[in-house]
Amino acid sequence: VANEGGKHWTVNEVRALIRIWSDKNIQQQLEGTVRNKRIFEQVAARLQKFGIDRDWKQCRTKYKNLKHEYKSVKSAQDSGNTTKSMKFFNELDAILGHCTMEQASKSDNDESERPPEWAEAKSEKDSIG
């Protein structure tokens, strides 16, 4: 799928984008806002230092696409489908894994996040009553 710029991202361009995205400072800014044009202008400026010519819109579009693809692969894997994967999954998992896991455990009350003693204590209580 061609993105807004019409020019496909090369593997090196995506790696550079992910490297910038993995910067804690950038992540915090992205997590804290919806109006993120300024952040992606910074990202584009940093890509320029690597000799990569992308504007902020292209960076934002690629970021959104990568994030979307990551989430669909992650949820497929969580439901047991191990055949679905993507090129930069591990790199993105290192960045996104922490925040998506937090959100997941809040929404579906994931037992695996809790110490095993809790689950055992809970099940004993249930069987007594």
Automatic annotation (TrEMBL):
Cross-referenced InterPro entries, in alphabetical order? Myb_DNA-bind_4
Residue span(s) of domain Myb/SANT-like DNA-binding: 7-95
Annotated Basic and acidic residues bias: 105-129
* Residue numbers spanned by region Disordered: 100-129
Query: What is the name of this protein?
Result: ZSC29 protein
